[in-house]
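Page header: ASSEMBLY MODEL / two components / 517 residues total.
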Amino acid sequence: MASYSTNEFRSGLKVLLDGDPCVILENEFVKPGKGQAFNRVRLRNLMSNRVWERTFKSGESLEAADVMDQDMEYLYTDGEFWHFMLTDGSFEQYAADAKAVGDAVKWLKEQDVYTVTLYNGAPLSVTPPNFVELEVVDTDPGMKGDTAQGGSKPATLSTGAVVSVPLFITIGEVLKVDTRSGEYVSRVKSS
Amino acid sequence: MTDVAAWRPTASREALESRARQLAWVRGFFAQRGVLEVETPVLGHHGASDLNIDSVRACVLPVAAAPATTAWLQTSPEYHMKRLLAAGSGPIFQVARVFRDGERGNRHNPEFSLLEWYRPDFDDRDLMDEVARLVSGWLECEWPEIHSYRDVMRRYAGIDPFAATDREIARRCEEWLDPAEFPGMARDGYLDLLMSYCVEPALRRSGPTFITHYPASQAALARVSTDGDGYPVAHRFELYVNGIELCNGYWELTDPDEQARRFAADNAARKRAGKVEMPADQNLLAALAAGMPCCAGVALGLDRLLMLKLGTRDIADVLAFPFERA
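Prediction written out in full:
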């Protein structure tokens, strides 16, 4: 396996630290003119999602982590695993467990494309696109004729996610939602 | 994938113009003061002996087809300029391109511009005054405050760098690293970490600051005396502006025997660290023996001075081509 020296550290690089795959967020080279050089590195542990700060002696190296981001279509869940398929035409399928799917589970819609991060060939995490379009399956009745006024209510989407929506939203409408904040963005015009 | 923009300079046209103006301003500063501009070799037979400064090796064929000679790109023009001083040059300055291996970051490039000057009959205080005049004149910033190494360490790192034991200093660094994973790192290595992690960031929030009276173990080529509490201290100073280390100056060591001992101590430390040893520069020792005048000298990073002038925190903004594009 390849390894990277501190002078190759840059944000986005995937390395192994204490046996866990991590992504480098920031690398600062510090050295008083006559003194010892260090690299002050911030990394996200891809297993725990925790951010670490670590100090390395300049010139040390870390093993590269076999971590790859792949676009995959979500197929279905059998209750234990969530199944995805590569969109590169290979039809290769991967099964992600609940830990890998994590919070993305509430945005998973069949046939939509997600970023699946593979570690040593197995799904490590699933990242939804920034925006998804989902149908409202349950919400209190809408209030007609008062679309401009503020106020909100909860609405349950087809994936089970609950988002706060304006009062005029009704069951059956398709909404655009920001997956990063979990916030309602707009209605999607039905054709 | 190759970067299609990699042929382009990283410095703006404005930065290039400021660089030219800065150079003219510096030359004017020294012309007014009767300091002679000199040029000394970039390619020398001796590299720096400092433990933490690595010279770039060059392979030279002075005569075609003759066996290659190992030479070193200079990390500072210090040794050569001191030989000029010993030969009676009087006050001298140089704008030098210097090279240091293993140094690349937001404030470092393996090749950079150093302004180095020497003042016979000056001591460290006199030279700090001249540095302050040059820097505050060009940057139009406040006159620097002066604090001792011991005071800034006590204030910002919460440790007395002279009184604390090695163990206490290493323990102070456990917030950032596990000393067990840094075998062979000496007291000064931990102090350097505290300088980078505690003192420098704190100095970003204060005005220009001289740090003086470094531990004797970090004297490099400065003379050493004893402070009021009986600790040996180096007559070495550094200037920080906005937390950026700008220069390093000494009331120069002139004693050839002490210089020879420091070369030997440096090389012992280099050997322990598994680094190539640098034979003592006999020409420098001979120049000191012949009589180098009592003087103070300082090296100031011109790229960083320009970063401060332009308010950028990335050295690439002031270099036409940083190393990746060189």
